[in-house]
């Protein structure tokens, strides 16, 4: 007997390889998958504006990346003794406006300089609900804890989302015709919207994603939302906040992403790099012990083997870390 419906995502025709450049934009689910790719040494640029939840600010961010237009002092505002941008997550905020601008523009420049060579764009849509600043009718990426009466809350339509994303994606394709796009809807629930409103939001995103995939060549839909909601389908796969996926759920979705979107011929290399990542994260109870020295020496040997297999990948940080352990134990 079968007690669940397992979802097998479709494999993309030209999967992601280690020598590809990746840009991940969108909700914190994009950070989860993008972070795992980066940890495995994929060239991954993750959320140059910070986490973005709605399609409107993702579209605006794409246009800014394409133009490379720097942010100016007029784009900032002060609240609670810090300078913020409505286009950025609070990670970019700062008590000094010059510092805030520097962080924002340095990050933007880095992404703008590589967008024409980017091979894969990963877009994760989080919610169709947006907050519109009353004073200038701008859809904001982050309200930065301003009073609710300063905003109008609205749910975008399928056509709104399609139109907002169509233009920057067309512009991207015009400067980077080989770009492949992996589109997904975040499985993270926005319970502050209400259960029914969250479902309406996700349904709107799913319909918009279908329309976009029909419009663009080399755009693929990865079913992250369906893997959690329809495949796993159990509260034990949620974190304690009942909104975010648990670590186990993210592991499962990652496995499906790997099977669907990553180059199968590099699976052994991924496995070995993954072992190295686990070793770096392993807590050593006594870093100066002989046991720790032997552990570190084994990892140095693994790094040398990985360098021989993939000379284009950088393991300098890992090598320095394990070398420091060996030096401590002498």
Characterization of the model:
With 330 residues, the protein is of the alpha/beta class. It has 10 helices and 10 strands. It folds into 2 domains: 21-262, Rossmann fold (3-Layer(aba) Sandwich); 265-330, no CATH class. The longest helix has 21 residues, at 195-215. It is globular and about 65 Å long. The protein starts with 20 loop residues before the first strand and ends with a helix. The model has no long low-confidence stretch (mean pLDDT 95).
SSE map:
Blueprint: E1 21-26, H1 28-39, E2 43-46, H2 55-67, E3 76-79, E4 82-85, H3 97-112, E5 120-125, E6 129-133, E7 138-140, E8 151-155, H4 158-175, E9 180-185, H5 195-215, E10 219-221, H6 224-232, H7 247-261, H8 267-281, H9 290-309, H10 316-328
Parallel strand pairs: 1-2, 1-5, 5-9, 9-10
Antiparallel strand pairs: 3-4, 6-7, 6-8
